[in-house]
Write a structure and sequence with these properties.
Layout: H1 3-13, E1 24-28, E2 40-41, E3 46-47, E4 54-59, E5 64-73, E6 83-95, E7 101-105, E8 110-114, E9 122-126, E10 129-141, E11 145-152, E12 161-165, E13 182-186, E14 192-196, H2 214-229
Antiparallel strand pairs: 1-4, 1-12, 2-3, 4-5, 5-6, 6-7, 6-8, 7-10, 8-9, 10-11, 10-14, 11-12, 13-14
Pfam family, one: Rot1
Signal peptide: 1-18
GO biological process, one term: 'de novo' protein folding
Length: 230
Amino acid sequence: MFVAPLMALVLAASTAVAQDSVVGTWSSGSQHVIPGPGFANPAKKSFTYPNTTGVGYSFSDDGWYELARYRFTSNASEPNCIIGTVIWAHGHYELLGNGSMVLTPVGDGYQQVQAPCAGTSNFIQNYNFTELMKTWQIFQDPQFGPKLHLFQFDGSPVAPLFQVSPTPNMLPKQVLRNVTPPVVTITSDGLITTQTGTTRRRKRSAAPEMQRPIAAVAGLVAVAMFSAML
């Protein structure tokens, strides 16, 4: 007979909180992917790989954001052809009156892609995408505290982000590496992409490897999929 009151308490504890600021550092899942100097070194176009996959955002009170993402993508038809991607970018964010959020990079972002079954198996290239978050909302998790939910332009959710710090953990708020002038394009789904004219590809021996055995990678994929459903 105590089930209904208990469920009411749980739902009340998980409702959205009156918080209109995203300032702070947020990370998904096991909270190992955190923006800042511990994740990326733009001057060297290198990464320090976290122990698990995930995504992290930092937001400052003066309109800067930083993105860190580490993920593996499985291939059902070719189980051994798992693609690993590590991404870093930063720039300016704006909270719009309709409840959406726009993230505009300054142009020095980059990503490393490792695709063992591709012609070029390991390369680094520029990564600069303007992201539109259709909506965002902060909930109070009864165990972890503030939890940020972001919904992309098509309504699909980003993995829930837990607040690991009320202050932003990020690299200096300025352009951190030299890039050629960007070419701006609009994709068929309405996203704006900014990509430099030259894409830098490296052979396997030139870019640092993502040191993940296939078995471990498969486990990380399963963990990432489970985290996304939480």
